[in-house]
Amino acid sequence: METDLIVPIGKSLIQHGYFNNRIYLIHFHPDDVEAIMKRINYLQLVFSYGKIILKIPRSFLRDFQTPDSRVEATIRGYYQGREDALFLSRFYDHNRAEEDAYGIIQKNLTSCQSQHLPSIQKNSSAEDFLIRKAEVSDIPDMCSLYRNVFETYPFPIHEPYYLKKIMSSGVPFFIAETAEKIIAAGSCETDTHASAVEMSDIAVDPKFRGKGISKRILSQMETYMKENQVKTAFTICRAGPLQINRCFQDSGISLGGRSLRIQISVEHLKV
Predict the structure, then answer these.
(1) Angle 139-149/160-168 helices, nearest 10 degrees?
(2) pLDDT tens digit sequence for 82-136
(3) What is the pTM of this model?
(4) What is the CATH code of the structural domain delimited by 5-97?
(5) What is the pLDDT of residues 193-202, one digit of tens each?
(6) What dotted CATH number matches 102-268?
(7) Nearest to 222 by CA among 194, 252, 245
(8) Cα–Cα dist 22/43, whole Å
(9) Which pairs with CB-CB distance under 8 Å and at least 24 residues apart come from 116-125?
């Protein structure tokens, strides 16, 4: 599974590489404005990526905005529940900027938001699987799950060294398991400066889908984040697939923006 590089810039963090053909400012810190701009301009000059995505506070829009950039999505109250985060994008590949699949995406998202859709069927009782916080000893089975579920992924979550690294840095994972094996997983990557969490890396073994497992993992992660006083939860997922968008919609997470490739949803946690 191919992935891109993750590089710190002071207290901030970017991801770049040809796998996604982009530069992505994942975490922003106000102390790093000048360093971020210099590094991004240098990387774009050297590698000529197709897209740059900057996740920044609304108050820093003027610092990063250029004539060819546009705001693709907004996370309301991302920074300490008070200031919005903007996803400011610049396109260098014009084909990438065209939303030729917009009709399909819009149909799926409208379907997700319909009040008349039947509920997700739950064919398993609560006794069939357990949801708990993952431990380091679970890493081999989690990697196996991620390899089975994702053909491609922007981060190397299928590699034991990577999972061990981010779990050791304080990123909690939650898993669903039967008596035999781990059947689902998800993570809560917290931006402590912003008091916001990205609910991510959600994967369910194909043999166990349609049982409401993703929704239960999301509920467990939300409870954990509330207990840790995190103010805002969000997720980024592909806008095309109906099932995962239904899961987030059913969990009460509202739409914060969409493009051809991604949907950004947001929820404010009442702590």
Answers:
(1) 120
(2) 999 999 999 998 776 655 444 555 555 555 555 544 444 444 444 588 999 999 9
(3) 0.76
(4) 3.40.630.30
(5) 889 988 888 8
(6) 3.40.630.30
(7) 252
(8) 10
(9) 117/246, 119/250, 120/210, 120/212, 120/215, 120/246, 120/247, 120/250, 121/210, 121/211, 121/212, 122/211, 122/212, 123/210, 123/211, 124/208, 124/211, 124/213
- When mean pLDDT is compared across 30-39, 62-71, 93-102, 103-112, the lowest value belongs to 103-112
242 phi, psi to nearest 5 deg: -75, -40
Q: Is 22 helix (H, G, I), strand (E, B) or coil?
A: strand
Q: Measure the CA–CA gap between 113 and 135, rounded to whole angstroms.
A: 35
Domain ranges of the chain: 5-97, 102-268
**Rounded distance between C-alpha atoms, residue 81 and residue 177, angstroms:** 34
Rounded to 5 degrees, what angle do the CA atoms 210, 212, 214 make? 105
